[in-house]
């Protein structure tokens, strides 16, 4: 007797691991940690005879109006951009997890007050908040990190709260409360570990925004001050020569865009793997 | 094996399936799993056939394969699939099972809550099928047909239901609507996938009656899939007993129940709760040692704008002696869960008191913690009540840690001891919940509840998520533990078979009130309240030859409670 076989339909393709993005981030990380090794020249060394040279084999990104090697300046600027963004992320993470946990787990008045505050933050444009903080506190790296981090607190805190609510409703959390485990233990052991995934994924996405914000602030003159290089102020400085020397704004801008996109891509992949799609 | 057709009423076979195989290819280093291996089944016209088996036996997969509804990754093949031809009455060969959907075979899905589109009104759900099957586009005609269809399945006030959304209807009504939907294409075979497993016993009875009525009125055949051999035995003419993807036995129901040939079928029949060893009549110690009691417990919910407050629990008093089992039964919404939350201190009552050792429990976190030490809770679903990322040994030790009992070493010892008490090997302590079977997990949950040597364990439907044989073993374990440790159980269950087998006293609840409260025997044999009688009548009765002398003594359930395949 012949066997009838129902043909299987082809299965959905999996989300790929973002290899290119990881390479970009690896290079950027190396540049931030070891700028002196990677940069071909001294970022501060001026050579007036080599002013405003277009990109070439000798000067990959060309030179600026004082004859400084732009490629070296971009590499040395990485540290400032990235470290402030990471600091901002740490600050935003800490504050929003605290807010989200308290609001989600204890509920009631705490929830209403905290989420009310978060909603107010959400209603204001984030760049405006950052500018207000920097003009109030001054422009040190720590202040910059706070200014940039605050902007991400509303979304992170909301997601944390939602996740805590979801996990707290699970039976094993009720069971742990039921046999009398202290509240901070219930939170630390049973709630947070299961709420962590989506918060981490969102954090990676927020980091991309933060890198952009840090550069935006220094573009506006509130961040790293010249002659110290930073992506934002390099882009700003190149504006005056844009008509004749396109590379001064375009190439640092391209680096910034590449890094933000790569962070975004990795964040998306993290989120997808948390959702069980990879 | 093929079910023999009773020649007296033989109207021929309606469906014949031979050699069905469903396999899931291996992925990421896992072996391929064979869900169904060489299944053959014949459904005679106008008859009911039941496929009985435990979870993972491949019974639902069989139904899905019959309609081509298996997931894309599954490899489905069969040697022969035939369906009765409408005109000649002979069998016609079917190549693609999808051709059978709707017009020849209607499916009544398992879960009435999730099987209706929550965003569509009932009328629209029908209109869609009317368009698809009958080409009807007129609203009025679709309406008229829907009303008639709803009436025929016993939905009250059908005109009103048309404009309602699924969430506004009860589980029983939704199940009736699903049956009516399955009938729109005028199929000649109804597939019912555990149609009643989420319903109360009384509703279950009415829905099963409806299947019988529909079958008789329309000359349909029914292929019923169930884990409950009692339901299958009561409703089907033929039984197909499945285990691990294979048919172990099939034939006329009476023959199988009277003289099961396969050891597995015998095991199913001997693991019915009624076969648990009889409990000695409970005698309270003198002086009586009451561990947990309540007086006039009342809790109500709602009472928002223009809404009446609903009494979830009204004036409930009970006493629980040391070593006693008291069962609370009732339909869903009767207030069982609320009562349980009040008694375990998870909620505070509006009025009334809970007494532990004769002392009133006080509010506050510290009193709550002290209370938790003496009264522990075991949940319905062990997979959800255990943290999936904790090794089970750590889960068992956590109550000890919470109450600062002993050091790390003595806790580890206690965990070993507890695992032994619940008859699990000590090396399981290092495993995670996902690596254990449902029965093993519930044993772990019981071990965790025992860790602090409580006086009372509240059991919230402790076995309803488990297969029958595993249920049986677990109930036996609970009985042994009670005898040894003199712990009192407060059992909440909808399964009256379980209640009858293990409880000393029964409290029947209805709409938040106590309908009846008496010793188990007298409740079951001489119920005083009409509501209790209705509940009891609804229990599917399996007429087994008694005593089953020819049945082998209960074998250990090695495979059914074994380790789950990763």
Automatic annotation (TrEMBL), chain A:
Query: What is the top-level taxon of the source organism?
Result: Bacteria
**Sequence intervals crossing the membrane:** 20-39, 80-106, 113-134, 199-221, 241-263
The answer on whether this UniProt entry bears the keyword Cell membrane reads yes
Q: Tell me the InterPro entries matching this sequence.
A: BP-dependent_transpt_permease, MetI-like, MetI-like_sf
Principal localization?
membrane
Please state where this protein is localized.
Answer: Cell membrane
Membrane topology is: Multi-pass membrane protein
Of which family is this protein a member? Answer: Belongs to the binding-protein-dependent transport system permease family.
The protein in question is named ABC transporter permease
| UniProt organism field | Streptomyces albipurpureus
Query: What does UniProt list as this organism's lineage?
Result: Bacteria, Bacillati, Actinomycetota, Actinomycetes, Kitasatosporales
UniProtKB/TrEMBL annotation, chain B:
Q: Which residues form the ABC transporter domain?
A: 15-269, 292-536
Tell whether Lyase is among the UniProt keywords. no
One Pfam family, short name: ABC_tran
Picking any one GO molecular function of the record gives: ATP binding
Keywords carried by this UniProt record: ATP-binding, Nucleotide-binding, Transport
Q: Which family does it belong to?
A: Belongs to the ABC transporter superfamily.
Which named protein is this?
ABC transporter ATP-binding protein
């Amino acid at each position: 007797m012949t066997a009838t076989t129902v043909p299987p339909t082809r299965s959905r393709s999996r989300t790929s691991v973002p290899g290119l993005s990881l390479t970009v981030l690896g290079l950027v990380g190396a540049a931030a940690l070891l700028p002196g090794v990677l940069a071909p020249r001294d970022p501060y060394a001026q050579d007036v005879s080599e002013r405003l040279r277009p990109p070439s084999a000798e000067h990959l990104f060309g030179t600026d109006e004082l004859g400084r090697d732009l490629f070296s300046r971009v590499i040395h600027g990485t540290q400032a951009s990235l470290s402030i963004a990471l600091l901002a992320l740490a600050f935003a993470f800490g504050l929003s997890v605290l807010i989200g946990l308290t609001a989600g787990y204890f509920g009631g008045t705490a929830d209403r007050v905290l989420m009310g505050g978060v909603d107010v933050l959400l209603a204001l444009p984030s760049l405006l908040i950052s500018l207000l903080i920097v003009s109030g506190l001054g422009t040190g790296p720590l202040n910059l990190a706070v200014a940039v981090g605050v902007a991400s607190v509303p979304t992170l805190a909301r997601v944390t709260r939602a996740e805590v609510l979801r996990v707290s409703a699970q039976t094993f959390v009720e069971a742990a409360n039921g046999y009398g485990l202290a509240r901070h233990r219930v939170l630390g052991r049973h709630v947070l570990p299961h709420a962590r995934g989506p918060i981490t994924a969102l954090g990676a996405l927020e980091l991309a925004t933060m890198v952009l914000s840090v550069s935006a602030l220094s573009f506006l003159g509130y961040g790293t001050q010249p002659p110290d290089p930073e992506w934002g102020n390099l882009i700003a400085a190149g504006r005056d020569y844009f008509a004749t020397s396109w590379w001064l704004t375009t190439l640092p801008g391209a680096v910034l865009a590449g890094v933000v996109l790569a962070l975004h891509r990795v964040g998306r992949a993290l989120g997808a793997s948390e959702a069980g799609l990879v | 094996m093929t079910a023999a057709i009773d020649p007296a009423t033989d109207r021929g076979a309606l469906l014949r399936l031979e050699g069905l195989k469903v396999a899931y290819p291996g992925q990421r280093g896992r072996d391929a799993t064979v869900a169904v291996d060489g299944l053959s089944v014949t459904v005679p016209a106008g008859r009911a056939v039941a496929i009985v088996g435990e979870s993972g036996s491949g019974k639902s997969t069989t139904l899905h394969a019959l309609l081509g509804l298996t997931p894309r990754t599954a490899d489905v093949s069969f040697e022969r699939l035939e369906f009765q031809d409408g005109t000649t009455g002979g069998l016609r060969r079917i190549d693609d099972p999808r051709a059978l959907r709707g017009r020849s075979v209607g499916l009544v899905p398992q879960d009435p809550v999730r099987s209706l589109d929550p965003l569509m009104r009932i009328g629209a759900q029908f209109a869609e099928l009317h368009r698809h099957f009958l080409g009807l586009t007129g609203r009025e005609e679709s309406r008229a047909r829907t009303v008639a269809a709803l009436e025929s399945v016993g939905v009250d006030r059908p005109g009103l239901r048309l404009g309602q959304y699924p969430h506004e209807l009860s589980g029983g009504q939704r199940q009736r609507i699903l049956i009516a939907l399955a009938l729109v294409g005028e199929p000649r075979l109804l597939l019912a996938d555990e149609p009643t497993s989420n319903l109360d016993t009384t509703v279950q009875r009415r829905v099963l009656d409806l299947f019988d009525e529909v079958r008789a009125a329309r000359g349909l055949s029914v292929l019923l899939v169930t884990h409950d051999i009692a339901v299958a035995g009561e409703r089907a003419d033929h039984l197909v007993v499945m285990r691990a993807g294979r048919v172990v036995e099939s034939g006329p129901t009476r023959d199988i129940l009277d003289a099961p040939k396969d050891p597995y079928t015998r095991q199913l029949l001997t693991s019915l709760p009624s076969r648990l060893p009889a409990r000695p009549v409970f005698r309270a110690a003198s002086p009586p040692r009451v561990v947990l009691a309540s007086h006039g417990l009342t809790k109500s919910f709602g009472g928002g704008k223009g809404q009446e407050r609903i009494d979830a629990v009204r004036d409930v008093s009970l006493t629980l002696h040391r070593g006693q089992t008291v069962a609370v039964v009732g339909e869903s919404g009767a207030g069982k869960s609320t009562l349980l939350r009040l008694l375990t201190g998870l909620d505070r009552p509006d009025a009334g008191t809970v007494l532990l050792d004769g002392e009133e429990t006080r509010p506050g976190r510290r009193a709550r913690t002290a209370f938790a030490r003496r009264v522990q809770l075991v949940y319905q679903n062990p997979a959800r009540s255990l943290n999936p990322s904790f090794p089970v040994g750590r889960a068992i030790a956590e109550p000890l840690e919470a109450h600062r009992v002993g050091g790390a070493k003595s806790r580890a010892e206690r965990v070993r001891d507890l695992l032994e008490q619940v008859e699990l090997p000590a090396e399981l302590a290092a495993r995670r919940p996902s690596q254990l079977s449902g029965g093993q997990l519930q044993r772990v949950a019981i071990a965790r509840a025992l860790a602090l040597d409580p006086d009372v364990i509240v059991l919230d439907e402790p076995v309803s998520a488990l297969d029958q044989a595993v249920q049986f073993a677990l109930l036996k374990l609970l009985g042994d533990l009670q005898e040894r440790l003199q712990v009192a159980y407060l059992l909440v269950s909808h399964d009256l078979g379980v209640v009858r087998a293990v409880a000393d006293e029964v409290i029947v609840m209805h709409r938040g009130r106590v309908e009846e409260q008496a010793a188990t025997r007298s409740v079951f044999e001489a119920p005083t309240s009409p509501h209790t009688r209705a509940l009891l009548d609804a229990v599917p009765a399996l007429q087994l030859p008694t005593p089953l002398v020819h049945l082998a003594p209960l074998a250990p359930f090695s495979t059914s409670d074994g380790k789950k395949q990763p």
